[in-house]
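chain and backbone:
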Amino acid sequence: MINKVTRRKASHQVLAQLKAGIHNGTYPVGDKLPSENELADAFGVSRAPVREALGILEVGGIISSRQGGGHRVEQHSLLSKYEPLVMEVASRSEVESLLEMREVMEQQAASMAAQRRSEQELQQIEQAFLAFRHTTLHDGQIGHQQDYLFHRAIMQASHNPFFVQILDNMHELYLGVLVYSLSRNLGRADERQRVVDEHERVWLAIKAGDAAAAAGSMQHHLSNVRGKLRRLEQEGKA
């Protein structure tokens, strides 16, 4: 049964109901989902939130695009039950908690990636790093999207799918923190270079297969991020 959406962000409600329908068998694995227009009419929304929800499901591998249009249900694994953590405005304590979790999770992910990564995954990490370096040092941009992809590539190379899912579920909050932190580097060449160097040390340790160095480099990088945000907060109070 489809319910009309309320004031909560429409795409999130559409996503939740589509996930529920996939899990309870309303949309069985292998079946084609209703069209975007049909779903929009059923939910009482425009096509935009439907398209956004379908995009999230497709990125997660829950559905796939069909040649000629439409989407087919591929799976309904445990991972897909987790709702994306979407926070329009994060408090300082929430940001601090996120960074604490990142230190624990990403140190382990970097260590595991150093031991488990394939050559293709190593290339993806390298490409993400090079894109971040170029965007940060030469394009004059903050590079938050490239930074996110770098950390995500490391998560993937750890071969633990829950790491990737947790990261994706916090996508908006994670990017928000990156934007807040990296935007403070604009006009500060020394800070931009320092952040690039920290990322490079993580990548090189993973490339060398040095699990301890990869974990240590990641911990050093994320500890610096936390320290920087604390300094910015104190400057804002001064």
